[in-house]
Automatic annotation (TrEMBL):
EC numbers for this chain: 3.8.1.2
Keyword Acyltransferase assigned: no
Top-level enzyme category: hydrolase
Family to which the UniProt record says this protein belongs: Belongs to the HAD-like hydrolase superfamily. S-2-haloalkanoic acid dehalogenase family.
Keyword vocabulary terms for this entry: Hydrolase
Top-level taxon in the UniProt lineage: Bacteria
Protein name (database record): (S)-2-haloacid dehalogenase
SUPFAM superfamilies from the UniProt entry: HAD-like
Endpoints of the signal sequence: none
An MF annotation (GO) of this entry: (S)-2-haloacid dehalogenase activity
Length: 222
């Protein structure tokens, strides 16, 4: 059986929607760069904690990354604004193509799983609010083994939880580090290139397929 492992943040869920909240606090000019820096730092903290084996929940990485970014920008956000931003992160919207694509894929006979650095509770709540939860067989969280993507152990954990085989498992993600990690674990991969500006890491490793929309998956995954 073919199983599909969907990354959540940035693939199904539009994490950039925090920009609108940031704009009301910082103005449009600073909001985009602040959001991008926050996201980059969030991932950096997860990578570093994974390498150091000093695990903290992904929500902690998110909060610490926000604190760092705010300090770097001269502390323009007060405590209430920071809490509002963290709350926004728990109710982010789905990308426009997510529901229709997941509806078709979930009826195709393939297993559909959410696969995330976030805790099962946080991801399940996020998917519920975004009206996506009904399309998934389960939510597989890296928190179960206290590590983060792209640690090889998290991809094995997914296989252990689903009973699937690497060669019949697909990772669907907009994050090239995740695609490369799954490729190294022997999975098939679909890189969701959501913007023309998105770049894939030049490591000499290519995704199995590249799509610009989740709607293209049904015709390309066998």
């Amino acid at each position: 059986m073919t199983n599909l492992a969907f990354d959540v943040y940035g693939t199904l869920i539009d994490a950039q929607s925090v920009v609108s909240t940031l704009s009301s606090y910082l103005g449009t000019d600073k909001a985009e760069s602040f959001s991008s820096r926050w996201r980059d730092k969030q991932l950096e903290y997860s990578f570093r904690r994974g390498l150091m084996r000093q695990y903290q929940d992904f929500a902690v990485c998110t909060k610490e990354a926000l604190e760092f970014t705010n300090n770097e920008y001269g502390s323009p956000l007060n405590e209430e604004q920071k809490e509002n931003l963290l709350d926004t992160y728990t109710r982010l919207p789905a990308f426009d193509d997510a529901r229709a694509a997941l509806s078709k894929l979930s009826l195709s006979g393939m297993g559909c799983f959410a696969f995330s650095n976030g805790s099962q509770e946080a991801v399940s709540g996020l998917l519920e609010k975004a009206e996506l939860s009904s399309y998934f067989n389960d939510v597989i969280s890296c928190k179960d083994i206290k590590s983060f993507k792209p640690d090889p152990e998290v991809y094995q954990h997914f296989l252990d939880k689903t009973g699937g085989q690497a060669e019949s498992t697909w990772l669907i993600s907009s994050n090239s580090f995740d695609i490369i990690g799954a490729n190294a674990a022997g999975w098939k991969t679909a890189w969701v290139k959501r913007t023309k500006e998105a770049q894939f890491d030049p490591w000499g490793i290519e995704p199995t397929i590249t799509v610009s929309s989740l709607s293209q998956l049904i015709e390309n995954i066998k």
